Amino acid sequence: MRVVDRMKQQVKMDNLSKALFEASYEALVLFSKEGRVLALNKSAQDLGDKSFWEKIWSQRVGSLVATGIPIYRTELAIGDAVLQCSCISIGEEGFLLVGHDAALERKLRDCEKIRHILQSILDSAYEGIVVVDEKGIITMFNQAYCDFLGVKQEEMIGKFVADVIENTRMHIVVKTGVPEYRQIQRIKGHDMICDRIPVKQDGKIIGAVGKVLFRDVREVEELLSRTEQLRQELEYYKTELRRHQQTRYSLENIVGQSRAISELKDLAVKIARSNSTVLLRGETGTGKELFAHAIHNASQRSQGPFIKINCAAIPEGLLESELFGYEEGAFTGARKGGKTGKFEQAHGGTIFLDEIGEMPLAMQAKLLRVLQEKEIERVGGTRPVKVDVRVIAATNRDLEALVREGKLRQDLFYRLNVITLEIPPLRQRREDIPCLVEFFLEKLGLALGCGKKKISSEAMSILMQHSWPGNVRELENVIERALNVVDGPEILPCHLPYYLRDAGSGGRLLPTLKEAVAAAERDLIKKALSLARGNCLEAARLLGVSKSTFYEKVARYGICRGLSEKSEKMSTFPEKAMHSIG
C-alpha cells in the first residue's frame, strides 16, 4: 500500500511539474548532456522548434557549458529577440535553459522606476490622493491621505475602496465614468471637498483618481477670507498708486489775492485746455510744482497719471533709463523683464520735469526727439514706443544765459518755451503774505496737533518787512518753527527767528519798551511760580497782584503748562486760563 501511495504521489508531483513547466512565462528548454532537446514549454516554442534550440545549443550554450563558464543572466541573441538566459545543471538528466525577453525586463524595471517616482510625487502632495482600478480596488494611496485617516499605505493597497474609505463614491465613478468635482464627503466628522475623476484608455475605463482638495469646509472659508483680504489690499495699493500718480493740488490750493497771482491762475485755466508744453519759471520756493499740479488737475488729462522727475536729483548715468526705461539685458544688473520709464508711465497724462536747466547735454537731444516725435526708445531697445504725454517743465535758472554758454540746446529751449508762466517772488506780492500766514497757521496747526494759533500785529509787521529770498517755502518754514516754540495762543516777535527780528527792528540794539516789559513779566511769573512750588495764589501774593490779574498774565504769556494742581486744584482758573493750560 505504501508503494502505491508513493507512486501516486510521484505521479502528482510529475503532473504539477509539467503544469508549472508549461505555464511559465519564461522560455524553458530541457537539454540532454549531448545538447538534444528533451522538452520545451509554450514560451520557448513561440521562439523556435527543437532544431532551432539545438542550433542555439551548438553555437552558443554548449561551448560555454563545456568550458565550465557559468551561464547566469547572460544576454543571447535568439532570432529577432534578445533573451537573458541562465543555464542550470539538473544532474544526469542534463541542463535546463531559462530565458526571458531582456527588453521586456528593462521595460519592467523602467515601469517600476516610474511607479516609484509617481508614488514619491503623490506622497509629497498636500492633497490626499487615492487611485483605484476598474474594479474599485486601491492601487495607490499617498501619505497625506494615510496621515488624515490614520492608516498605513500597505494596509490600504489591494482593498476595495468602499471598505476602507467612509462615504466614498470611487467605485461608482469607475462604473458610470462620470467625473464628480468639488463634492462634499464626510469622513471622521469632517466635511471634505474632493474630486473623483475616471481614468480612460482607448475609450475604456481602467480606474479612477480621487483627490481631497480641502480636508474641511472651514479651510475653504478661511481661504475665501484670505483671498478677500488680499483683494482689498490690492485695491488699496492700486488706489494709493493712482493717488500718488494724481495731482495733490488744484488752483484752489494756490493761496493769494494779489493781481499777479490772480492773473496767473486765470492764465493757468486757459492753458490747461491744450496739450502744449508749459515752462514754469521762477525763483526757488515760489510754487512752480504747485502750478504744475493745478494745470494738470484742470486739464482733460486730470484722470491720467501725473509723473514727476527731478532732473538734478538723478545721476547722469541713470537719467536715460529713468526717463525712457530699458529692455531686459540692456546692461549688467538690468531688471528681469526690463523697466518702464517715466514717459511710458505718464502715458495719457502729464510728466513734470523739474530743474530742467540741470539736464545734461547728451539727454537734451533725446528729450527733443520725444517732444517732436512723441515717441521714446528704451535703453537696449530696437523699436520706438509711441507716448501721449504733456510736458510741463520748471526751472529757476536763466535759460537764455545757459543757451549762450552752450549748456542748453537752443532748439530744445524753443521747444520748451511754448507757453511760459513767470511766477513772481513773494517780495513782489507782499499783499499775499497775510493770507499765506493764515493758511499755514491752519494747515500746520492741524498737522502739528497744536491747534490754530494767532499772530500778533508786531510779528506780522516783521514778516511783511522781510525780503523772503526763499519765497513761500521760507515763509512756511518760519511759521512751522514758530508753532513749535510758541507756548500761548499767539505768535509774538520773540517766537520768530533772530534774523527776522533783527531785520524787522532795523538793526536796533535794544528791544522796544513793550517787548522788554513783556519779557520781564514772563520771567518774574515763572520765578514766582517756582518759589511757590506751583501754588498760583502764593505766586500772586509774592508778586503783589490780584488773583485775576495773575491768571490773566500767565494765560497771555502761555506759561500755565506744567503747573501743579495746588492752589485750589486750578479749579478757580478763569475759562481763558484753563484753555491755555489744556
Describe the overall structure.
The longest helix is centred in the middle third of the chain and has 29 residues, at 217-245. Mean pLDDT is 80; it is low at 561-582. A five-stranded antiparallel sheet has the order 2-1-5-4-3. Strands 7-6-10-9-8 form a five-stranded antiparallel sheet. 26% of the residues are buried. The radius of gyration is 48 Å and the shape is elongated. The chain folds into five domains: 2-105, PAS domain (Beta-Lactamase); 125-214, PAS domain (Beta-Lactamase, 2-Layer Sandwich), CATH 3.30.450; 251-422, P-loop containing nucleotide triphosphate hydrolases (Rossmann fold); 425-509, Orthogonal Bundle (Helicase, Ruva Protein, domain 3); 512-582, no CATH class. The protein contains 24 helices and 21 strands. The N and C termini lie far apart (126 Å). It is α/β, with parallel strands linked by helices and 582 residues long.
SSE order and pairing:
Elements: H1 2-23, E1 27-31, E2 37-40, H2 42-47, H3 50-66, E3 74-78, E4 81-89, E5 95-101, H4 102-124, E6 128-133, E7 138-141, H5 143-149, H6 153-156, H7 161-164, H8 170-176, E8 180-187, E9 190-201, E10 204-214, H9 217-245, H10 259-271, E11 278-281, H11 288-298, E12 306-310, H12 316-324, E13 325-326, E14 339-340, H13 342-345, E15 350-354, H14 361-373, E16 375-376, E17 385-386, E18 390-395, H15 399-404, H16 410-416, E19 419-422, H17 433-448, E20 454-455, H18 457-465, H19 471-485, E21 490-491, H20 498-504, H21 513-531, H22 536-543, H23 547-556, H24 575-581
Parallel strand pairs: 11-18, 11-19, 12-15, 15-18, 20-21
Antiparallel strand pairs: 1-2, 1-5, 3-4, 4-5, 6-7, 6-10, 8-9, 9-10, 13-14, 16-17
